[in-house]
Design brief:
glycosyltransferase, Glyco_trans_2-like, alpha/beta, 516 residues, seven-stranded mixed β-sheet, 16 strands, transferase, nine-stranded mixed β-sheet, glycosyltransferase activity
Length: 516
C-alpha cells in the first residue's frame, strides 16, 4: 500500500505501508504523481488523502478491505460534491443524491480520501483528463468508466471520524469547471440546458463559462481494458445457499405453470416458491389447481388474496422469506436450467448481494456486457441476499403506478448495498396479454381539471429521493419535450398549464406519501 498526501495543490508526502518515505517531485501535479506511483507499484493499493486528514485516515480498514482491480473508493466529508449541487440539473440518477452514512455507489469522487488498486489508473483510457485538478481527474475517471465495469463507491469508513473536517475549507468549484465537465462528459446540448436552468432557478446567467466550455470536446470511452478481474476466493455453493422465489400473479394460470416447470428443471432447486395470487372478485377462489394436484420438488407457499396490487403482493411474499437468497420473478418469465446456479456464482465470484439481470422481450437483441453498477432495480429479474431485505419493503404509495421498482432499489442502495447489472444469466419476459396491471383502476386524480404531469407516483419518487436541482432539471426537460404536444401553441399559455399540472402532481404525491 502506498499513501499519497496532498494539500489540494500539490503532493506533500508519499509513504509506504511500512512508513518509509518515498521520493516525489514537487513540480508535478497530484494526478501526475499518482499515475507515476501506479506505474512504479502496479500491484499495490494506491491511497490518497488530504494532509489535514492524515490522523483520520483509517489505514487499518484500507489494509483489511478486499481490493479488486475494478473498484474505486473515495469519501467527501462535505455536504456539497466537488461539482456542486448544480450537477443535478444535468443528471438525475441514483448516483447523485447519495447516502454518506453507508457505502454507496456513485461516480462523484473526492480527493479528500480514497484508494484503488494501481491497475485502475494504469488501465484508464486516454480520454480521461489528466489536468492539474486532482478532483476533476477522479470524477472524470469514475464518470467515464463506471458504465464499462469500474465500480465506484462513496465509503465513509475511509475516515475514522469527522473531527478534523473543520481544519480544511471545502473546495469551491467554479462554474467554468462545472461547464467544462458537462461539455466533456455529456452531449453538447447539456451545457445550454445548464445555462437555462441557472437562469430559471437561480436567476444567474453564466454566459462566459458556457462559451469557455465550447472549446472542449467530449471524448468517449468505448471500452475499459481491465486486467482480468480477480474473482473472490470462496468455498463455492453450499447447502446454506438456499433460494426462495417470489412470484406475484394475477390471471396468468398458464404462464405461471411454465415458470414453475422452469424452476423444476433448475440444476440448483429453490427451497421455496412463494406465490401471491390476486383476484379482485370477492366471490372467487384460487384457480391454481396444479399447485396441489402435481408434485413439485420444492415447497410452494401459496397465498390467495382479494387485495390487488403488486406492491402489496410482494410485501406479503417478503414476510414469508426463509432462505438465504431470493429471486424476484414474475408470472410470465422463462429461464434456463442453470439460471439460479449462475446467479449464485455471480454473487459469490464478485462479492455482491443484489443483482439485476438481463430481461429481454421476444425479438430484442442480447448484448453481453461486463457487470456494471445499475441505475434501477428489476422487480421481475433480480437476485438478492435476504439479509439485505430485512427492513426494506415496497411502498404502497406506488401501488398501480410507476416507480415502485426504482424506490425499492434506492432503499437497497441507501442501506449500503449496491445493485449490479449482469447480462448473464438472462431471462425472457413474455409480457403476457392478461393479468398484471391490465386490471382497470381509477386514481383519485382522474377527475382533476389539470391532469398531473408527471404521474404523482413519479413525482413521489423524485420528491423522496432526488435533489432540488435534479427535480428542477427534470422540470425544464419536461417543458421542452411536452411543448406543442398538448395542442397549445402559445408558450406562455402552455407554461401556465404545465405549471398547474406540475402543482397537481406535487399535491397528489404528497397525499400518497401521507397515506403510506
Amino acid at each position: 500500500m502506498i499513501i499519497l498526501y496532498h494539500n489540494n495543490k500539490s503532493v506533500t508526502q508519499v509513504i509506504s505501508t511500512e512508513g518509509r518515505a518515498l521520493s516525489f517531485s514537487e513540480k508535478n501535479s497530484i494526478t501526475t504523481e499518482l499515475l507515476i506511483l501506479a506505474a512504479t507499484f502496479p500491484e499495490e493499493k494506491i491511497v490518497w488523502c488530504h494532509c489535514a486528514l492524515e490522523s483520520q485516515l483509517n489505514v487499518d480498514f484500507i489494509q483489511k478491505n478486499e481490493t479488486y482491480n475494478n473498484t474505486l473508493f473515495s469519501f467527501n466529508p462535505y455536504p456539497t460534491p466537488y461539482l456542486t449541487d448544480a450537477i443535478g440539473y444535468v443528471e438525475n440518477s441514483v448516483f447523485i443524491n447519495i447516502n454518506k452514512a453507508n457505502t454507496y455507489p456513485t461516480w462523484l469522487m473526492s480527493g479528500s480520501a480514497g484508494y484503488a488498486h494501481a491497475s485502475v489508473f494504469l488501465n484508464a483510457d486516454d480520454a480521461v483528463s489528466t489536468a492539474n485538478d486532482f478532483d476533476y481527474f477522479l470524477n472524470s475517471l469514475a464518470k467515464k468508466h463506471m458504465p464499462l465495469g469500474l465500480f465506484c463507491y462513496s465509503e465513509p469508513r475511509l475516515l475514522k471520524s469527522t473531527s478534523a473536517f473543520s481544519e480544511i475549507k471545502a473546495r469551491k468549484t467554479s462554474r467554468f469547471t462545472l461547464f467544462k465537465f458537462v461539455k466533456e462528459h455529456y452531449r453538447t446540448r447539456w451545457v445550454f440546458l445548464l445555462l437555462l436552468d441557472f437562469l430559471i432557478y437561480e436567476k444567474k446567467i453564466p454566459l462566459l463559462p458556457l462559451l469557455f466550455s465550447l472549446s472542449y470536446k467530449k471524448k468517449s470511452v468505448e471500452s475499459y481494458n481491465l486486467t482480468e478481474v480477480s474473482l473472490l476466493k470462496h468455498s463455492g455453493i453450499t447447502e446454506e445457499d438456499t433460494i426462495d422465489v417470489l412470484i406475484p400473479t394475477i390471471g396468468r394460470k398458464k404462464y405461471l405453470y411454465d415458470v414453475l416447470l422452469d424452476l423444476k428443471k433448475q440444476n440448483i432447486l429453490p427451497k421455496n416458491v412463494i406465490i401471491i395470487e390476486q383476484n379482485g372478485d370477492v366471490t372467487a377462489s384460487s384457480e391454481l389447481d396444479y399447485l396441489t394436484t402435481e408434485d413439485w420438488p420444492f415447497t410452494i407457499l401459496h397465498t390467495f388474496t382479494h387485495t390487488l396490487g403488486a406492491c402489496n403482493a410482494r410485501n406479503l411474499a417478503l414476510e414469508q422469506l426463509k432462505s438465504k437468497w431470493v429471486f424476484f420473478a414474475d408470472d410470465d418469465v422463462r429461464i434456463d436450467a442453470d439460471f439460479l446456479h449462475q446467479c449464485l456464482l455471480n454473487c459469490k465470484n464478485y462479492d455482491k448481494k443484489a443483482l439485476t439481470l438481463s430481461c429481454l422481450q421476444k425479438g430484442e437483441k442480447f448484448i453481453e456486457t461486463k457487470p456494471f453498477q445499475w441505475v434501477s432495480f428489476g422487480t421481475c429479474s433480480s437476485f438478492v441476499a435476504s439479509e439485505v431485505l430485512v427492513d426494506i419493503r415496497f411502498s404502497k404509495s406506488f401501488e398501480f403506478g410507476y416507480g415502485e421498482d426504482s424506490d425499492f432499489g434506492k432503499k437497497i442502495r441507501n442501506a449500503g448495498t449496491d445493485v449490479v447489472f449482469f447480462s448473464n444469466p438472462k431471462l425472457l419476459h413474455l409480457k403476457a396479454p392478461m393479468g398484471g396491471f391490465r386490471t382497470k383502476f381509477k386514481f383519485d386524480w382522474s377527475d382533476e381539471k389539470y391532469q398531473p404531469k408527471p404521474s404523482p407516483t413519479v413525482m413521489l419518487y423524485k420528491l423522496t429521493h432526488e435533489t432540488t436541482e435534479e427535480i428542477n432539471g427534470y422540470k425544464t426537460l419536461l417543458f421542452l419535450k411536452s411543448f406543442g404536444k398538448q395542442g397549445i401553441k402559445n408558450p406562455f399559455r402552455f407554461y401556465t398549464t404545465l405549471k398547474k399540472q406540475w402543482n397537481t402532481s406535487v399535491f397528489w404525491a404528497q397525499k400518497l406519501k401521507e397515506r403510506n
